[in-house]
């Protein structure tokens, strides 16, 4: 069994977990929620195994690199970091409701990698500029940041559609309290902002060693900076102007839209970071 087959199976496990989270949320079945968590753990462990096996396969092929250098591998790792972060948050808070909104994001990331005919799962050698330990540091920190922003996006959506105190009590009980969602959004943005900052810094050091310049206004560098500024503004208005609630939720959603363009949109633009170029 190779890594691609394992990760294809993991795709359907994540899909089943997401479906069970949604069903448990709609029908308020705690036992289904526990089943969803168990499935997500199974998917996470399979995802980890597939990632590690792909790493070993690269050594067997004489390439010997960490699997983080193309769109397929980055999506696999993105789903891995999202699953890990969510399982930790669920364990700490005991709130499974967020899984109904975040589980589908985990599934969609790896489903795009596994099922899209436009994404190759072949293991290829690195171009010389990518043969650096800074690659691992840069990509890992960036995707930890992306995972935090993705979870903040999910809680922001939940906050905006929260039925409020005047609504039917049955629907209210399906959501954490608005204050809980707002606090979790803030915490995940702080987490994401920290790791995105480390990712940008490590990327600059790597760029200098590879291309002789810390910053070249490559499209991905530019959009990473735009994303960083959006979340910096969010944290500023939260801390200095005491913004909470819908304003923070909308800024979080705007920030995640910038994350998605930074990740996917720039691949259609010429640049050193385009996954289509390697």
UniProtKB/TrEMBL annotation:
The keyword Disulfide bond does not apply. InterPro entries: Cyt_c_assembly (IPR002541), Cyt_c_biogenesis_CcsA (IPR017562), Cyt_c_biogenesis_CcsA/CcmC (IPR045062). It is found in: Membrane. The keyword Transmembrane helix applies. It is a multi-pass membrane protein. GO terms for biological process: cytochrome complex assembly. One of its GO terms (cellular component) is plasma membrane. One of its GO terms (molecular function) is heme binding. The chain crosses the membrane at residues 6-27, 39-56, 71-89, 98-115, 135-163, 184-207, 248-269. Pfam families: Cytochrom_C_asm. Keywords: Cytochrome c-type biogenesis, Membrane, Transmembrane, Transmembrane helix. Residues 68-273 form the Cytochrome c assembly protein domain. This is Cytochrome c-type biogenesis protein CcsB. It comes from Desulfobotulus alkaliphilus.
